Amino acid sequence: QFFRALQYVPFLNENTKKFRMLAKWAFAIVYTRCFETPDGDARIVPMADFFDHGTYPEVEISYDEEGNCYAYSTHDIPAGTPLHISYGDPTNPSYLFARYGFLDESSPATFCKIMIDNPSQELQNLGYDHSRMLFYKETGAVSEEVWDVLLYQELESIDPGTQQAFYNAHMNGDAATKQAIHEQYFPKTLAALNEHVDSFLRQLDELSKRAHGRDLKVHPRLPIILQHNEFVKETFLKVKANLQQL
User: For the chain, what is the mean pLDDT?
Assistant: First the structure.
């Protein structure tokens, strides 16, 4: 599909479209070095693309009306300090890994991996977003949005009336009603979260088993892929340990 789509890009040279290795290399350069702007554009800025990613960046990028790029420090920076910008949500190291090819182990949390195709507006209003549905690395804590989304999904099949009441309470800021419904259905929500965590841990183990014996000359990124999986696994195991105490 990628190479078929290239045929419809008018400004690409025909030789580039036919030379697949060159096309893949050019795409990777643009995709990993460009800056996405608020208006949806993507720009490559020489020198600025040398900034590394940081969970707590010292530098922000902005543009003037003519498209000139400016890098500003966000606070006083001691001499000799490395300068970082943000490549994206620091609580989603899997995205940073998939796009840029590195693992940010300083990420305080990771997306909980609850994947919902075409989430409804209600789910989005409850907090279904990769930057909010979080498992925390150090403590194994679970964000409030995870509990809210799971409960809403559970209620859909067992008590639609209460599901609507829960959603209304959330939208109206009625914390007492929300808490009462959470408490009433907590065993079901807890069971659903336990099943998700156990299922994903099994998937990670299976992926690691498949990696054994692979030729690193053929799969040079395999070590960092396994490192990423181990990072996620450690976070999930901390969550699992916490859930077992509830």
Answer: 92
204-216 pLDDT per residue, tens: 999 988 888 888 8
> How many angstroms separate the CA atoms of 46 and 236, rounded?
39
Beta pairing class for 109-111 and 134-136 = antiparallel
Q: How many CB atoms lie within 10 A of CB 174?
A: 14
| Cα–Cα distance measured from residue 90 to residue 9, given in angstroms and rounded to the nearest whole number | 33
Separation between Cα atoms, residue 134 and residue 128, nearest integer Å? 10
Q: Which residues, 6 or more positions from 74, have their beta carbon under 8 angstroms from its beta carbon?
A: 57, 58, 59, 60
Cβ contact 130:124 at 8 Å: no
- Does this model's pTM top 0.90? My answer is no
**Phi, psi dihedral angles at 181 (to 5 degrees):** -70, -40
Cα 76 from chain centre: 30
The token duo for 152 is 């809403």
Find tokens 């829960």 and name the residue.
Answer: 166
Q: Which amino acid is at 27?
A: F
Tokens of 141: 């804590």
73-97: pLDDT as tens digits: 999 999 999 999 998 888 888 888 8
